[in-house]
Amino acid sequence: MPPRGGMDEGSVMTFREAEAYLYSFIGQRKLTDVYNTAGLLEFMKFLDHLGNPHQQLRSILVAGTKGKGSTAAMLASMLHAAGLKVGLYTSPHLCSIRERIQVNGRHIEEADFARLVSQLRAVYDAHGRPEVKRFRTFFELLTALAFLHFVQERVDLAVLEVGLGGRLDATNVVVPAVSILTSISLDHVEILGENLTLIAREKAGIIKNQGIALSAPQVPEVDLVLQEMAALQEARLYRVGQEFTWREEACSVESTRFTFVGRRHRLQHLAIPLLGRHQIVNAVTALAAVELLEEQGLAITPAQIRQGLAQVRWEGRLEIVRRAPWVVLDGAHNQDSAEKLASAVQEIFPYSRLILILGVSANKNIQAIVQALAPLADLVITTRAEVYRAADPALIARYVSETSTPVRVIPTAREAVEEGLALTRQADMLLITGSLYLIGEVKGFWESME
């Protein structure tokens, strides 16, 4: 159904105008002000003016702290290999806002993006309250855009990654075929709660009444909350590690392979191009979701499963952009992801010295991230991405100094990478991490440095 109150063809924005219009909503309201019940109810009213596109989609919803994007990407890739037309909505993007909205692995076209933002603006102006800048947020508008695009593309399934938390996230207006919860740890504590129990309750808000939920392995405190929330909703909760298990076969810089044992399949020698044993857990979670969809009528063969896993692309996660010396990009952005990154680097990469370039968002637990990563390094270069939420590199450096690791402060990412490359010998590793915003910026200029 088209939005009610459309626009004249001549009033369609260009892609750059549409992009700038959406970005104008960033920073108008604090996250603590928008993550609330009133905000979600207002968003649902806004969607009603658009014809409720979310109600026309069959969807999968993926929440969690770590691994939700990788899990969503692997699930979408397998579904596409099975012959379905699959929408994928993720955040944040690395280099282009168009990355966030994909159909069968193709980013939304600039013309479609501009046309849909123009439609959203018309509805916003007609039914919003722009004079008080209260009605909508950047993420809500982009989520609405994704819904509209997927409906117009007539996707068979939309795989939606939750933006923040779960219970009150804009994506949580859908009624998904499966609600997936990847690894949950401390993050956004100022919004979601100061401990794992509170955070888990927020993320478990995607579990629907009498729905189907799937959880990756969790610490006991989180697992207990998920069980309680599923029981409260009379939902069926399946858990990776119980109904779905795996055995690692190989985890190296050259190969990530494993055996999956589910309720319907036993598949050996499955290979994924993503590095690290945490990606095996994400792949098993995506496979478990496929099996739950099979029980709802999905037709998929073992060959299609293998093809989907082998062809998945998910950049900025232990991504190797050079091999001699190693130059690796990873978007680890909290304590748990930093600890997993540290383990993966030590387990799968052979190197002599490690030079770490670190840029972190100001709202993260910077000290914990530094403590997880700095001890691996022979030198840390602190820097920042060109985004408003980036932490001061000098502050990051003070935390690095507490670990007795040598540290340099270089204010811009490009200069930091240039310095890191100059210091790195053939047998060394240059690891760039701390924020997906930093990784996106580096990817934007990396080709010009090659």
What's the layout of helices and strands?
Elements: H1 15-23, H2 31-34, H3 37-49, E1 59-63, H4 68-81, E2 86-89, E3 101-103, E4 106-107, H5 110-127, H6 138-153, E5 157-161, E6 178-181, H7 189-192, H8 196-203, E7 212-215, H9 220-232, E8 236-239, E9 245-251, E10 256-261, E11 266-272, H10 277-294, H11 302-311, E12 319-323, E13 326-330, H12 335-348, E14 354-358, H13 366-373, E15 379-382, H14 393-401, E16 407-409, H15 413-423, E17 429-433, H16 436-449
Parallel strand pairs: 1-5, 1-6, 2-5, 6-7, 7-8, 13-17, 14-15, 14-17, 15-16
Antiparallel strand pairs: 2-3, 3-4, 9-10, 10-11, 12-13
Mean pLDDT over the residues: 92
Largest sheet: 8 strands, mixed
Overall geometry comes to globular
How much helicity do the residues have? 40-55%
CATH class category name of the largest domain:
Alpha Beta
- The number of helices is 16
Number of strands: 17
Under CATH, the topology of the largest domain can be stated as UDP-N-acetylmuramoyl-L-alanine:D-glutamate ligase
Query: What class would the helix/strand composition place it in?
Result: alpha/beta
